[in-house]
Structures are given as structure tokens and as C-alpha cells.
Amino acid sequence: PVPCSQPVGPDDFTVFAHRGASALAPENTLAAFRRAGAEGAAWVELDVDVIGDGTVVVIHDSSLDRTTNCHGSYYDLTAADLADVDAGSWFTTPDGARPYTGESLPTLQAALEVAGEAGMGVNVELKSCEAGAAACRRLVDGVDALLEAHAERWPSLPVMLSCFNPLLLDRMAKRRPGTPRALLTKDGLLLDTWRSYVEEIGAVAVNPANLTLERGRVEEIRSLGYGVNVWTVNTLERARELSSWGVTGIFTDRVHELGALGRGG
Ligand code: G3P
Ligand code: CA
After folding, report:
1. Candidates 231, 248, 252: which one to mutate for ligand 1, based on the most atoms within 8 Å of Cβ?
2. With the CA atoms of 11, 160, 239 and 38 taken in that order, what torsion angle do they form, in degrees rounded to the nearest 10?
3. Alpha helices, DSSP H only, in the chain?
4. Of 242, 265, 239, 243, whose CA–CA distance to 253 is shortest?
5. What is the rounded CA–CA span in Å between residue 31 and residue 20?
6. Any idea where the domains of the chain sit in the sequence?
7. ipTM rounded to 2 decimals
8. What is the pTM of this model?
9. Is 256 one of the annotated active-site residues of the chain?
10. What ligand is nearest to the CA atom of residue 162?
């Protein structure tokens, strides 16, 4: 059966601020989410994983190395340890300044608060949970509880879940059947088998990688009634081309330049 409710409807073109306004501020930080709100973003995308005490944190990688001043895995940290983690000092402006030094590694709870205050929808991407099955369960528990509280506090703000791992998405589907889900795909991963998974987990959209995406694939997915939200698209030219193919949304680091497309611009 064709899904009947879509967060990204056939007539919409939704622009997600990818990891926040991540061209202007350090990705997946509260500063990046606030900046996305200030730029008029309708939706923000963020990546989540879980630390040792069950706190859900916002980070893309499975190690702290690239985006913080710390090193190694975070799976054994507790919330108290987060005070030592600087997720902003790695980010330099074109003139070499580091204006975000001291920016914290955010919890999902704090990020949802910023998105709620700014009136933005949130696409929560669950990362792969490389710490094992118990950590995966903690991630599902934590995200479920936080989204429940978020829905009570901001009932009119949309939320979407996404993941490259269909099993994790299926687990979330069972917990939160009313929260729309999208299956992430990339070259060599789920691109040819997407349909069986979205049917199984009741997903409303497929979110494929930009660089290898072909028009025929978009048409195939759209013809079956599913949304297609493409990552990561950073030029107006490509965004307009994808829109002409029937794509329903894009993820961009440059919401300050492409956000207007989602507002009919
Ligand atoms: O959700 C779209 C995109 O964020 C998926 O890839 O690696 O940026 O998390 P990645
Ligand atoms: Ca992501």
C-alpha cells in the first residue's frame, strides 16, 4: 500500500538545514541550529548517538576526533564528561578566526529545545550505533523518550526519523508508529533494495545520496508514492534540477543560500 501521510508532500519542496547551518557554524552544535533558525530554515537535520549513561548526543561520527578537541570513542562517556568536550574550536571562518571555541557537544534534548524555540521541524538521523546491541537499545529508548516530550511541548512541530540501518528504523517504527520515517540510501547501500525495506518499516520517503542519483531512480520512487529527499545539495543549479525531477526535498549545508527554495523561492 502507498503511504498516506507524508511530511514532505508531493507538492512541497522541503529544505533541511543539514547538521544545522553547517557552512556558517560548526555542524551539529546549538550554534548551527540557532543560525539555521535565524536564516529562516523550516527544518533542521541532526545526527544522534548515545553515550555510556544513556544520554543521547548530537554528533555525526562515531569518534570525537574530527569535530571536537577530544579523541577516541564517546561510548563510555557520561553527561558530566561533556563539559570537557569543545565541539566548536575546530571550525574556522574564511579569515581564520575561531568564533565558536567553547561551543558544547549538544545533547539531543538541548537541540530539540533550540529547534522548538525557532519553530523548526527536526529530522533526527540515528547513527549506526557502533558500540553494540545494548547501546543501540539505549539509543532507541533515549530518542523515543525525548521525542515524546518534544511532541508534548511542541505538538504542531513536525519530526522525522531517518537512518541507513533499516533494522534500527524498524525498531523506532514499533516505538513511534506515528513519527514519519525515511530510509537513507547511498551508492551500494540499499539503493536497489529500498522498496522492500520502506514497505516493511512503513517509511514515507527514501533519502538518497546526491552524487550518484539518477533521474530514473527518483521517478521510480516517486511513482510509488514515496518522497525523495536528497543529500547533500549545496548549489542552486543542482537543487533546481532535482526539483524538476520530482524530488521532494534536499539537505543542504548552505541553508542561507538554498533555504528560499523551500519557501517557494
Ligand atoms: O540525512 C542526510 C545525510 O545527513 C546523511 O548522511 O553522512 O551527512 O549523515 P550524513
Ligand atoms: Ca546526517
Report:
1. 231
2. 100
3. 30-38, 108-118, 133-153, 166-175, 194-201, 215-223, 236-245, 255-258
4. 239
5. 8
6. 14-263
7. 0.99
8. 0.95
9. no
10. 1
| Secondary structure of residue 261 in the 3-state scheme | helix
Cα angle: 176, vertex 180, 185; to 5 degrees? 115
**Structure letter (DSSP) for residue 260:** G
Q: Which amino acid is at 134?
A: A
What one-character-per-residue DSSP string does 73-108 give?
B-TT--GGGGGG-BSSTT---TTS--TTTT-B--BH
Which ligand 1 atom sits nearest the alpha carbon of residue 127? Answer: 9
Over the stretch 121-144, which tens digit does the pLDDT of each residue have?
999 999 977 889 999 999 999 999
Ligand nearest to the backbone CA of 28: 2
Q: Please measure the distance between the N-terminal and C-terminal CA atoms of the chain and give it in whole angstroms.
A: 33
Q: What is the pLDDT of residues 237-258, one digit of tens each?
A: 999 999 999 999 999 999 999 9
Give the homologous superfamily in CATH for domain 14-263.
Answer: Phosphatidylinositol (PI) phosphodiesterase (3.20.20.190)
C-alpha cell of 235?
A: 548549489
